[in-house]
Amino acid sequence: MDEAAPHQPVCLPHLGYTLVLNSAGLRAAGIDRHTPVPDGSSVERDASGELNGVIVGVPLRRQVEKAIPPASLEQRLDCLRFMCRQNLSWGTTSALEAGLLPHDIRAYQALWQRGELNVRTSPGCGGAGQSAPSAGFECVCRALPRHV
Predict the structure, then answer these.
(1) pTM of the predicted model as reported, rounded to 2 decimal places
(2) Most buried among 1, 11, 34, 79, by the most CB within 10 A?
(3) What whole-number distance in Å separates Cα of residue 14 and Cα of residue 29?
(4) Same domain? 78 vs 133
(5) Are 85 and 40 in a shared domain?
């Protein structure tokens, strides 16, 4: 990722509690080889002991989330449009999207309402660090069609 975006922070969330960051993303989050790793988190390192950008666990994930602004709704919609095109190019017409947070579900709902969600998607609600959905989260889940 450093080669593709050497100066722009990049953070790729992975299912569950894992994030993959480039060097600029690590710097933006204030994480380096000397950063204490809190209980409940871990960082992966290369053979020389340098961080490789893989962070696991809620405590460090929260630190990264505070430092890197979330994507806008339009950016999320652009990503979903791309993912739909990619899935369809592979012949995939339905998908399961696990670990969705409220803002993710709202993006799916907006794309569906615009008639642009052309891959049948079953949302899996709940994400990193959420043991039970909040009242607002339940409301968003109820508003989403069973299979969008």
Answers:
(1) 0.64
(2) 11
(3) 17
(4) yes
(5) no
